[in-house]
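PROTOCOL LOG
Step 1. Enter all chains and additional molecules of the complex.
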Amino acid sequence: MKIRAAVCSGLHEPWKVEEVDVEPPGPHEVLVKMAYAGLCHSDEHLRTGDMSAAPEVLQVFGVESMFPMIGGHEGAGVVTEVGPGVESLAVGDHVASSFIPACGRCFWCASGRQYLCDMGMAILAGPMMSDGQWRHSLDGQHVNRMTQLGTFSESVLANEASLVKIDPGVSLKAAALISCGISTGFGSAVDRAKVKPGETVVVVGCGGVGSGAIQGAKIAGARYVIAVDPLPFKVEKAKQIGATHGAASILEANLMIPELTEGRMADVVILTPGVLTGDLVAPAMQLASKDGRVVATAIAPFNQDQVSLNLFNLAMFNQALLGTVFGSCSPRVQIPNLLRLYQAGLLEVDSLVTQEYSIDQVQNGYDDLAAGSNVRGVVKFDS
Ligand SMILES: NC(=O)c1ccc[n+]([C@@H]2O[C@H](COP(=O)([O-])OP(=O)(O)OC[C@H]3O[C@@H](n4cnc5c(N)ncnc54)[C@H](O)[C@@H]3O)[C@@H](O)[C@H]2O)c1
Ligand SMILES: [Zn+2]
Ligand SMILES: [Zn+2]
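Step 2. Run joint prediction.
Step 3. Record the structure below.
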């Protein structure tokens, strides 16, 4: 079949809709008619080259380039076809995408850590992870799909490990946002930092992921949640969903926190700016108290290996610097759980969608994100 999908053809090239040839589902593969796809910053990392692996790394995946690539990894839709051997899904099921596959059987999945599933090894680029065959092509050329998904596409062909079954009664738009950004931010606060009642939490960067972190901190019982973002409208939005204070920069937060914490500083700092750079780590550690936890959630350029960090203070202040993928929680648990919180009115999702786009407008959506006017843009597909 032919499907319309937003494809990036090379570094810094814009997202452009192409007619991609897609073969029928192979073993353990599922075809999903998309309803909504979220415009997460991670797809922008692909276009800018932050996420472009070196040629020797790509060789491991059997590809020479990450391009062309169908973008998108946040999304939700309805199953229209299943391939041989599919056990977990049937036609008509509602699903959310999961950029981290969760096979359920590997060591990591079996020990309750689906965010570390061994199938995650295959998500950078390459053919279908089911059987190593390509099923997407454009003008006779193989096409990669962002994190083995490519949700900027009318229909997504993915392994069942990358799809999470959800309640058919729940909003597919909310499910799209929860499928990556909100879950990752929420888990960064609740599952990785393990925020406790009464703590002070700083969230640096108030986009889709930061909005999940702010709400996670609030629901975990944080006394103060300080939202840091250079854009005043994002700080305002952050206050509407649970931030108690706002600041335009880490420096401004640094001047504000001593007064709130009797000079102790913040228990938890969560880093969710659009791009993580090594020079953000030292100022973040300075926001944190003794025994403080700093969570690095945002994605850094692929070969960023220089970090400014005072190792003396790290040890003597008993601090922790923690990485996280998908907020260190299991997609098959977290996505349905946050959808239940949303349905109960305890998690704000709808107001985070600042603009809806058609599939032809994906690049406009990322231009708006860069211009600072989106908390989260979503692609709405024709029903
Ligand atoms: N670890 C994971 O598993 C995971 C999952 C999803 C997304 N991410 C990453 O998380 C990051 C955030 O994603 P998003 O979609 O929310 O991005 P976004 O672009 O929507 O939001 C980022 C926000 O950070 C603000 N910002 C930029 N520089 C800042 C600074 N120095 N201080 C304070 N605020 C700053 C921007 O104004 C913007 O509001 C991205 O790097 C994304 O790739 C990581
Ligand atoms: Zn994402
Ligand atoms: Zn697994």
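Step 4. Note key features.
Residues 2-166+349-380 form a domain with the Quinone Oxidoreductase; Chain A, domain 1 fold (CATH 3.90.180.10).
The two ends are 18 Å apart (CA to CA).
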